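Quarterly update from the structural biology core.
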Amino acid sequence: MTRTRRRAVRGRRPLILVLPALLGLVFLVVPLLGLVLRAPWRELPERLFSAEIGAALRLSLVCASLATVLCLVLGIPLAWLLARGDVPGRGLVRALVTVPLVLPPVVGGVALLLVLGRRGLLGQYLYDWFGVALPFTTPGVVVAEAFVAMPFLVISVEGALRSADPRYEEAAATLGASRWLTFRRVTLPSVLPGVVAGAVLCWARALGEFGATITFAGNFPGETTTMPLAVYLALETDPDAAIVLSVVLLAVSVAVLAALRERWIRGAL
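Predicted structure, tokenized:
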């Protein structure tokens, strides 16, 4: 088929498809545009540095970063196990790992309470033996965010591992390198772009987490009130503050997707 004919075929846009496509675009973009237009831009710097919004912003950044570190420590080995390990029932394991992607976050928070609460399956021992209580604390926020965000990292790293060329690892093994050395010096550097992309997505998801956080960690200003929770509270008393926080979260989401657009296009995630 010639280039001219290809262009002709591609240029045919059935009206029955174009109209729903435009309506879908409007449906997705107009609410975001309305948020931007209604934002109190003149008061934005002052409100961002106010005590309440500043505390929620700092807490969100710290907890999301710590949750991402936790996901990296646990998620990279888990992704390697799914991609390279000979695990019985690997398909079932992968399904369980990705359950938080489709599970309602509130249900995830309830599950965390039943396991890590003071009378939970594991939480009772943490509290009785070590005096550690995770629910309704800042560490509880980190745990809730990591639970919801980790699948993003695992999927990204597993995909990178599956697409990586195993010949370099085989060459390192023939030269006498141990499995741990091969992983550190060969495997991990080769999938670093996937790790970075997964970590960024993980961080952004943790930053915007609401349901599991409010269920497992509660809503205590300065301790567990992250930006999404602050948005929910501000809607009742100070709508402008809710809009400011929403704009910040929107800006972060757009920045993350813009930074990873090439990876999305190439289907690496």
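The radius of gyration is 22 Å.
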